[in-house]
Amino acid sequence: MVYGGSSESGDDDAFVNQLHVFNFTTMSWSKPPLPENRMGYRSGHMATNHNDHLIIAGGGSIICCLLLACIAYLMACIAYLIACIAYLMAYIACLMACIAYVTACIAYLMAYIAYLIACIAYLMACIAYLMAGSLDRSTP
Predict the structure, then answer these.
(1) Where are the domains of the chain?
(2) What pLDDT is attached to residue 61?
């Protein structure tokens, strides 16, 4: 017995809920009618017969397959979002490194300016000292 499955129908996969029975005596297949309350479309399942009953386990219906496809799509979206966050974090780290470099350059420039101011102050002190010495000699 073969129940359900999927087959390619044009561009789409089509799920089927038909029962096919192989007769080993006549070596032929038959398609017996199924009751109205039969199981829905099914694929990826196992089936066996027991005491004139067909037992089907596992697999999924078209709704289950659509749900799995939606979950897979959602997981792909989450993976893309994680990749975007990682890219953004790398961009922020690069930006922070640039800011740190600019800050270091500004600190170096400020230290250089402070050094120049100290040099000017020293020169002014020297000039003041020289002028004070010359003033002291000019008075009797």
Answers:
(1) 2-60
(2) 64
